[in-house]
Design a protein that fits this description.
The protein has 16 helices and eleven strands. It is α/β, with parallel strands linked by helices. It is globular, with a radius of gyration of 22 Å. Strand 5, helix 10 and strand 6 form a beta-alpha-beta unit.
Length: 438
């Protein structure tokens, strides 16, 4: 058994700051307010409803995760954030149309009190949106300093003991690393010089890390996963994680893919298409923003199926991903997957999946869990990339030279064993060899 880690207790209020007061973040906030009032359950949240096995199966120790590890209470959470529109969280939630009006009205006062700060925004990185509620600083470094001031004032005005930041804003255009992303020194110089390769999301991440605030990236942007910011997070002892919330179609892939691979069923092709109509769909209607999302979605299956190890089964698999903006869908997202598989003696079969989901309903518990577990990581003095939280991401961030694990079942084992380790419990490998012990 490991010795129990010295974890600071979650005393005082936890501020959760979100760039992007849109469908996902307002659904998340409303859900927390509703849960506080016993108007709904935080279904999908492992931090609130999940249980974890401890010790041998014969011991029957299966506490709630929130009773096992010291997590912040829902009653101690304070919300804030930034947006390019000035609507408060209640107005933004009504516009998003995810939640029923009766539920929203029951938390109207709480939601109306969450008013966005002016956002850092660059139309070049999100071409299908524009707003007037934005910062107008002369340089990107000045924007970063303005965000740092926002964080300080939010923390002070809301009497927060700690703050975390979760990126819930739109997908930015596809960006590749350049020399300005390679070190903290080069990055800060680029901020001063208004370098075109510095995206708004990177400015938020920089401001968070410089403020000692854990940062998790819920979109597929190149953001905190650059050498400059991983270096900074290590040097300043700040947890970071990303990227791209794993919710709809990709969630299904990380469930189905490991199952097919476990039974060594071959795959000739996997065609995926989506229709969605919310602001996310509008943003992804731009080819450059779609490319960012496409790269994130396409990376999943290769890692799970390992075609280099099983060339006869997966080397020639054709994988196609499509996203289509269809306004009548609203926040309801529909995905179709056509999977051409083959089995014994090469005989062909098909699997078809039609997933009609609500994007923000699936994302809200992910935001909550990431906020609480990132706060836990900081109180446990865990710095840099939090790979144990890969369970929540489409493109899990790893240390340089390591391939991410996409298999959701392996991710869950790593996640739970990290919690056991933090609390001094024996790690579980599911071998079931108790009867060999003397």
């Amino acid at each position: 058994m490991n010795s129990k880690q010295n974890i600071k207790k979650p005393e005082g209020k936890l501020g959760i700051l979100v760039p992007g007061i849109g469908a996902v973040s307002t659904t998340f906030m409303a859900g927390v307010f509703a849960a506080r009032k016993n108007l709904g359950k935080p279904i999908g949240s492992i931090s609130q409803m999940g249980k974890i096995r401890l010790g041998k199966r014969t011991e029957n120790r299966n506490p709630l995760v929130k009773d096992f590890v010291p997590l912040a209470s829902l009653d101690d959470i304070v919300f804030g954030g930034w947006d390019i529109f000035s609507d408060n969280a209640y107005e933004a939630a009504v516009r998003a149309g995810v939640l029923e009006k009766d539920l929203l009205n029951s938390v109207k006062d709480d939601m109306s009190a969450v008013k966005p700060m002016p956002a850092v925004f660059n139309h070049k990185f999100v071409k299908n949106l524009d707003g007037e509620h934005i910062k107008k600083e002369p340089t990107k470094m000045d924007e970063a300093k303005a965000l740092i001031k926002d964080i300080q004032e939010f923390k002070k005005n809301n009497n927060c003991d700690r703050v975390v930041m979760i990126w819930c804003a739109s997908t930015e255009v596809y960006t590749e690393e350049t020399e300005v992303h390679q070190s903290a020194e080069a990055f800060e110089k680029a901020l001063e010089e208004n370098h075109p390769s510095i995206a708004p999301s990177m400015i938020y991440a920089y401001a968070a890390v410089k403020s000692g605030v854990p940062f998790a990236n819920g979109a597929p942007n190149l953001t905190v996963d650059i050498p400059a910011l991983t270096e900074l997070s290590d040097n300043l002892n700040v947890p970071i994680a990303g990227k791209d919330f794993k919710t709809g179609q990709t969630l299904m892939k990380t469930i189905l893919g490991p199952g097919l691979k476990a039974r060594l069923l071959g795959i000739n092709g996997w065609f995926s298409t989506n229709i969605l109509g919310n602001r996310d769909g509008q943003v992804l209607d731009d080819a450059e923003s779609f490319k960012t999302k496409e790269v994130s979605k396409l990376s999943v299956l290769d890692s799970i199926l390992e075609p280099e190890k099983y060339p006869e089964l997966y080397k020639d698999m054709y994988h196609k991903v499509r996203i289509n903006y269809y306004p009548p869908k609203g926040d309801d997202k529909e995905s179709w997957d056509n999977i051409d598989i083959f089995g014994w003696l090469g005989y062909k079969m098909q699997i078809k999946v039609n997933f009609l989901c609500k994007d923000s309903i699936l994302a809200a518990p992910v935001v909550l869990d990431l906020a609480l577990f990132m706060d836990l990581a900081q109180r446990a003095k865990m710095k840099g990339i939090q790979e144990w939280l890969s369970f929540y991401f489409k493109s899990p961030q790893t240390k340089e030279g390591l391939e991410p694990i996409h298999d959701i079942f392996l991710q869950k084992i790593k996640f739970e064993n990290t919690l056991r380790y933090l609390m001094g419990e024996t790690l579980i490998n599911h071998l079931g060899l108790d009867y060999y012990e003397e």
